[in-house]
Design goal:
Elements (H helix, E strand, L loop, with lengths): L3 E8 L9 E7 L5 E5 L6 H9 L6 E6 L2 E2 L10 E5 L10 H11 L4 H15 L14 H13 L5 E5 L7 H18 L2 E6 L2 H7 L2 E6 L2 E6 L1 H6 L4 H6 L6 E8 L2 E4 L2 E4 L2 H7 L4 E6 L5 E2 L2 H7 L5 E11 L4 E7 L2 E7 L10 E5 L6 E3 L6 E3 L12
Parallel strand pairs: 3-8, 3-9, 6-7, 7-8
Antiparallel strand pairs: 1-2, 1-4, 4-5, 9-10, 11-12, 11-14, 12-13, 13-16, 14-20, 15-19, 16-17, 16-19, 17-18, 20-21
Helix pairs in contact: 2-3, 2-4, 3-4
The structure holds adenosine-5'-triphosphate.
The site of adenosine-5'-triphosphate has 12 residues, from α1.
């Protein structure tokens, strides 16, 4: 186990005009599970490869367990990696695959046997130890790949999209297993994914990256409730947050097809701005109901438009409504009958509006669902 610290870390590939990673700063807790998430090309893999020592960082310092690892070879960093292509040796048994790196390091036979059997036990693959990889399912192979990493008892695990070769159901099962495994072993782990659901369900803290720059590092709840900017707001949460451009006057925000009422906190946050970028999550929009809305105080907030898509998902229904130039996604109850082509009126509580500065796109006010975590260090 170890604390990993990045201090102003940057990476410029030879010949590249811009930095692949810029000013990365993060100090983990000992044993923390950190997820790096962001769209393709945002620098996730580069960051992992810099921790591993497979790429040199060109700016700043990286410390593992208090040691500056600049110039330290990958094999001497005491880390273990699990990647998307887990490439087991096909001619070797599961046992030999797991033992391979320990044999290379000339561990004693009895020690290797013990480590392999302990790891197999933790992963529930003891009955598979004498099989060859071809006789395993995708999920079992992925467990063996994890086993290969675990036997080394490293200070840090690096996992780069380890589940992306698995089908959807298996991914969900395996992500729960990896989380359990992490809890059991307590090893500091960096996990890369471009899947925000995976990030939210697995990360103790999540670093959201874009164009090589960390946009925000925080707990899943805080990212959801207090996104630092429009990008994070739109990236975290499925379906994505709706983003609307609004004019502000007389305590209301208006745009083509909508009027939203500001409460005192939102007025304060908006300051003297006469334009705002508004974020509304699909789960915070409801079909308007005159009586209920008077009671709930949402009567003044209305978004109106034609329903273009209806997606019944069983426990809920997603609809897409064209509000002026914007496609707005709303989550409604399955019993609420709405058809394509209907004109509907949606509403949203003032306390569920996210406001951003229209120029900088930085947050002005998020929401507080009463479950905010302590601010991250
Ligand atoms: P993905 O989700 O697609 O794997 P990523 O977030 O892991 O993307 P990186 O692979 O770290 O992104 O790439 C970050 C940036 O660095 C990209 O612009 C990429 O083109 C560039 N890059 C990556 N590897 C190299 C390299 N060896 N030489 C030059 N540029 C590179």
């Amino acid at each position: 186990m170890a604390i990993v610290a990045f201090n102003n870390v940057g990476k410029q590939y030879p010949g590249a005009e811009s930095l692949a990673v810029t000013d990365f700063n993060l100090t983990t807790e000992d044993g923390e599970f950190i997820v790096l998430v962001g769209p393709s090309g945002c620098g996730k893999t580069t960051t992992m490869r810099m921790i591993a020592g497979l790429e040199e960082h060109t700016q700043g310092t990286i410390e593992i367990g208090g040691r500056d690892v600049t110039g330290v070879a990958p094999k001497d960093r005491d880390i273990a990696m699990v990647f998307q292509s887990y490439a087991l040796y096909p001619h070797m048994s599961v046992r030999d695959n797991m033992a391979f790196s320990l044999k290379l390091k000339k561990y004693a036979k009895a020690d290797i046997k013990q480590r392999v059997e302990d790891a197999a036990e933790v992963l529930g693959i003891t009955p598979l130890l004498d099989r060859k990889p071809r006789a395993l399912s995708g999920g079992q192979r992925q467990r063996v790949a994890l086993g290969r990493a675990i036997v080394r008892q490293p200070q840090v695990f690096l996992m780069d999209e380890p589940l992306s070769n698995l089908d959807a159901k298996l991914r969900v099962d395996m992500r729960a297993e990896i989380t359990k495994l992490h809890r059991k072993l307590g090893v500091t782990t960096f996990y890369v994914t471009h899947d925000q659901t995976e990030a939210m369900t697995m990360g103790q803290r999540i670093a959201v990256m874009k164009d090589g720059i960390v946009q925000q590092i925080d707990t899943p709840n805080n990212l959801y409730q207090q996104p630092a900017n429009v990008f994070v707001g739109g990236f975290i949460g499925t379906p994505a947050m709706n983003i609307l451009a609004a004019d502000v006057a007389d305590g209301s925000m208006t745009g083509e097809g909508f009027t939203l009422t500001l409460d005192a906190a939102h007025k304060d946050a908006a300051g003297a701005r006469d334009r705002l970028t508004v974020g509304i999550r699909p789960e915070h929009l409801h079909l308007a109901d005159e009586n209920a809305d008077v009671e709930a105080g949402t009567k003044g907030s209305r978004l109106r438009g034609e329903v273009e898509v209806v997606e019944p998902l069983g426990s809920l229904t997603m609809i897409q409504v064209r509000v002026g130039p914007t496609k707005v996604t709303a989550q409604i109850e399955p019993h609420q009958q709405v058809a394509m082509g209907d004109f509907v009126t949606l509403t949203c509580g003032a306390d569920k509006l996210y406001l951003f500065d229209p120029q900088t796109e930085q947050t002005l006010i998020g929401i507080d669902a009463g479950v905010a975590d302590k601010p991250a260090a």
